[in-house]
Fold each of these.
Amino acid sequence: MANTYCTATNFGKGFFTHEDRNDFYLSGHAGDVWVVGNNAAGVSWINRVSGTAKTKAEAQAIVDGEVETAQAAWDALPEAEKAPTAGFETRTRPVKYTLP
Amino acid sequence: MATYKGIKGVKVVTKATDPTASEADATVWYNSTGNALKYSVAGTGAWAAGGGLNTARSQIPTSVMAPSSATLCAGGSTAPGEVAVVEKYDGTSWTEVNNINTARRNAGGCGTVNTAVVIAGGQSPGVTAICELYDGTSWTEVNNLNQAKTSVAPGGAGSSTAGLLAGGSTPSITNQTESWDGTCWTELNNLNTARQAMGVVGTQTASIAGGGYGPSTYAGEAEVWDGTSWSEVNNLNTARGWLGAAGTTTSAVGFAGQSATSTQTALTETWDGTSWTEVADLATARQSIGGGGTTQGAAIAVGGAPGYLSSVEVWSDPVYAIKTVTVS
């Protein structure tokens, strides 16, 4: 298995270091979900940040839930705010995606 | 048998404690406390977590000329709208300081942490030409930009007394360039390609602008400013807008952004004066960030979208690491 999964709260500086990033794969997602390279350094990092281990399905469910919440917030916006506005960045309805 | 002294001309030094990895780059020493032979190497660039913003937000102007360890984040947007909140970063954490007078998003910023200009920006109730000067304590409104515009680079090039602002949206996408002399704005030669939301770094007389969003598509174009005119150089590998940038006209880094295929990206590209190379990703994909830094090797990515992020990442290139020689 190339990756492992956890939830952990980003407490700021020191949460992950430059050395960590060179030692294992790491990507952050909604719901404080982190995808972590499955090697000794990655496992050590999860322990260091008091991460809670999740299966991929559990992690995916958390991210999906966050996306659904964001979708509901988007759907509740007035239509004028959802329409593309010339000169401003595209804000689109959030979409679900598959964690690596 | 080759010896360390024979190769390096010096003996392996004995130290009770390890030096910092950057100080010890490319050297070997014996740690007498841990009884270990150690060495330091310069590894590839990487992003680390920085201190989180107190107010989560996106579309943030920052002081691009400030180092990543001492920068300023002024305004931006958060639910339910544009904010005037200003925070200063000391390399570890953010402290809220006096607000800008006019809340706005997608403004530009020149200068350093204590001498900065926030330029134009805004979307609702409208695009502004308002500029404000920071003296380290408070904000004072100064002369307006000649043309109201928004979605300029999160950090404009130059200082609070010699700044440069290129592109943006009026809300029609523009190729205008204006320079700031500390008192007023003057129009200069236009960009070759009209764009908004580029990454721009450098000084008033030597800067590079890359990426952005053209009238109907994301831009990969990069242009270099020589103090008089813009010249096209090699494109970014991934066309995108609302990205951050740091460095100089000959050595820069562009990061994050929104592309045709990703609402937000984690991509990082370095510029060596000739071409762009994709390097290590941010941990969190984001766009509409605040971002800046004085060198290619030390950048900061602040907040951004999706939603309104408070997280911050700090780029270092190279990343020094201390290793232990293992003998089996």
Amino acid sequence: MDDAEGPSSRAISISAEDVQRFCEFLYRRTGMSFTEGKRYFIDHRLEDRIAATGSSSFQSYFSLLRADADHEIEHLINSFTVNETYFYREDHQLRCMTSSLLGAIVSRRPLGSTVRIWSIPCSTGEEPYSVALWLMENWPHVDSYNIEIVGSDIDTRALRAAAEGIYGDRALMRLSRGIVDRYFKPVADGKHEIDEGLRDSIQFTRANMIDAQDMANYRDFDLIFCRNVLIYFDDASRRQAAENLYDCLRPGGYICLGHSESMSRISPLFSVRRFPDAIVYQRPEADHG
Amino acid sequence: MPLVKGNRRGSAPGGIATANPPTLESSDPECRWAAARGLAGHAEAVPALSAALVGETVPRVREAIMTALIRIGDTASVEAILPYLRSQNAGLRAAAIEALQAMPSAIAPFIAPLFSDTDSDVRLLATELARNIKASEATPLLCDLIEREQHPNVCAAAIDVLIEVGTPEALPALEKCAVRFAATPFLPFAISMAIARISGAKA
Amino acid sequence: MGDIGATAKARILVADDSSLVRLYYRSTLEKAGFEVEQAINGIEAMEKVLSQRFDLLIVDVNMPRMDGFTFLRSLRCGSNDVAGLPALMISTEAQMQDITEARAAGANFYLVKPVAEAELVRHVCVLTGVPL
């Protein structure tokens, strides 16, 4: 794969020791690790970031990275992960929801009671709508309970788009023809609008995960999808966000992170739970402290 | 359709917030948790948070108290947490160093004195603090430490940080260390890795 | 490193927050024919223990976010098939109280850092039942 990179990035040599240093930092900070066979993956992205930051050497880039200047950690992690949002992304977590989590959630609850699910950040809505679609298509008990789904984000433009519910083909690429036909209707420019009933049944709100006052308005969630955001925060913000999310969950409630995220890099407040389809994290049931 | 447009709060009442205001002195850990969370960023609360930390046995509450102190992030916060580096409890020591690492500018003046602490456990934990400062500042501090240090585990901890931040300035100190610990397990490995890493790193 | 899997004597998880210590244990144990995975703290150790098969855990005491004692206690009181996994605890501390605490947390054996290569291999062989 030959990219048209400028001569400046090619001129910067990165030694094997530099790559080692970088990999150890990346592993410590994010949990991401790469086997020998995947090293080319790193070299390429490292060169990109060095060029993008206008760094004159690996060393000056690494100093910048360690200081997280200009949110470089976020840019770096983004370059390693595919951050495109689409329906049924990381569907193993959705499968875990219906195969394992919901059973536990409703086990001590009467029929007809409420299950509360939160997608934060919800971005342009693919995630909360995916939760809704998946439940209706895959949960045999979906009609036996009231399901409240809330989608929140700090970005009001994204929220407006989410409320509108209009998506292009790419966002729908993982959905079967049948699902698209049942829940979407074609609109202008070859796009698709999600069913009005679905749009009306999801509450979209603006929320800042780091703001405890803001988050105090959210309580009693059984399941929170908090994917691909916590890993970017600095120490103080991460702790604050984790404590906020803890309080937003019911005791025994679950939280799902992004596939390359781990609570080991975020917070000790939650227990690790392993299910056939996914690792999720749980607010302890009784108060163990 | 089983989907119901919810409100954020759910059907539960306000809970603790509407009852008596939570205090740090409560016998209920939930109250202490809520109180600590409510004091985050309130600089005048440092003495109260500091007092609450003494004898707090519930890890989650301790975590919240430390987060509150981190959000304040001043010298008083650092001083409130420093004593726990000497705790007998491994978890508490780890929590303390993690909290201090989250306050890089407030902890900076304390690093050199901590590197000279008479307690080797404190020196060992403190090496982590050099990770979050500029390489040009961390290297001389760590070199100074390893040049004086007799305790192999403290040296090992310092070298673990040097391998990330060390500049070529560190090479002489590492070489001297290699001689001092030639007969000690692990240290020769650690030092030769660090020397190779720093020498191989392009300036 | 990649081909060890097929003929590894046993799979070992090393939990230690020092990259140098992990590297040291890994190179020592791989030379001795073991397959080694890493974790940086007790939370990551728990994730890996629940997701992969291991024959032995090597657990450092002083790790951030979840220390070795907390991890081990949590592992031992779990109701799954990994609760009884053999665990070698390693620490900078050499006091009797630390050894007692390690035993109470469920460690099978306790070593004091810095650990010599031969000492590490010998104890790993004993705890995995692999002949030296």
